[in-house]
Each structure stands twice: as structure tokens, then as C-alpha cells.
Amino acid sequence: LTTGTLENNQYKKIIQQNQVDGVILLNSSNYLEVLDTCRNHNIALIGIGTGFQKYANSENKLETPIISIDNITAGKNAAAFLHRKNVKNLLFFSAKGIQSFTDRLLGFETYAKENGLPLKKYFLATQSYNSHLYVKDAFELISQLDIPDFSSVGIFFSYDDIGLGIYKFFEKNFKQLHC
After folding, report:
1. What is the pLDDT of residue 113?
2. DSSP per-residue letters across the chain
3. What is the pLDDT, as a whole number, of residue 84?
4. pLDDT given for residue 63 in this prediction
5. Which one of 43, 141, 154, 160 has the lowest number of neighbouring Cβ atoms within 10 Å?
């Protein structure tokens, strides 16, 4: 099991020395490098995560199984969970341009529309996976909201670290919050 970023490419040494029968690779920016190393040494490879989807239609067609989350369904399920908590309004916080976040929003929007729930979307300025910047951007957006009572509001954050950071803030300042 590797992210393909072991120090000094240790994963390559392990594969080259036939110390493993297979590799389970978590989302990795150097997927193709790991794939080539496994191919060259006849080692089975399984990819886990949505990051591998971009290779599905590339010239390096995937020749390995990929296990990935269905982000659209995840968004629908999140909205349904909040709805079951009797929220009357939904807020969605996300960054733009990250496909998994866009898919989660699509599911969230679909559920809200199908169930007549008002939805407000807020997009953060941060365009990377830097959780500290996300939380900072989210705080700035939330501080501008004019919501006197958060007890009937359900909030979805497209990134776990944002949600946890903001939840801790709200937990201290409001009696009831649904995230």
C-alpha cells in the first residue's frame, strides 16, 4: 500500500526486488510512474481514489482496476442526511475546479431540488488541497452570512478538513449545527 511518494522512491526498490506480489496505490500524482514500474516487473496494481479517473481517457489507458467513490451519490446522501435532521435550508461550501467537489455539488443540488430545499452555494477562493487556506476562506465567507439562527441550516463542506475546522468554531458559538 503506497501513495507512490515514498522517500527516495523506496516503492520502486521494493517492486524491483520482487518483495511484493501486488501494489495498492492511493491517490497519487505520479500514478503513471508507479504503473510503469509495476508493468515492467509484472506486479499487479490496484488504484484507489478519484485521482485516477483522469487517466481513463488518456493515451495511457488504464489497464488496472480502480476503486473510486461515487461523489454524486455522496452529495445526495449528505443532503438527505441533513434533511432527516429537519434542516430547512442548505449551504454548500466548496472550491471551484476540483472534479470530485463539482460532483458532490451536483448530487447535493439534485437532492435539494427534488425535495424543495433552498440551497445557497459558496465557493472558496482556494484552488488547491491546502486545508489551512480552505478553513481561512470558509471563515471569511461564513462571517459575511446573515443567518440569525443556524439551528435549521445544514452545511456541507466539500473537504473534510474544512468541515471539521468550521464545525469546531460553530460548536463553540451556536447551540445546534448540522454538518
Report:
1. 96
2. -B-S--GGGHHHHHHHTT--SEEEEES-TTHHHHHHHHHHTT-EEEEESGGGGGGTTSSS---S-EE---HHHHHHHHHHHHHHTT-SEEEEEEESS-HHHHHHHHHHHHHHHHTT--EEEEEES--SS-HHHHHHHHHHHHHT---S-GGGEEEEESSHHHHHHHHHHHHHH-S--B-
3. 93
4. 66
5. 160
* Nearest residue to 94 (alpha-carbon basis) of 49, 43, 153, 138: 138
Cα-trace Rg, the chain: 20
Q: Are 49 and 68 in contact (CB under 8 A)?
A: yes
Task: Report in angstroms the alpha-carbon separations of 67 from 47, 52, 158.
Answer: 6, 9, 20
**Is-contact 110 76, C-beta < 8 A?**
yes
Amino acid at 121: K
Block means of pLDDT (10 residues each) for the chain, 179 residues, are 58 82 76 79 81 58 73 93 90 79 92 93 67 67 70 76 68 57
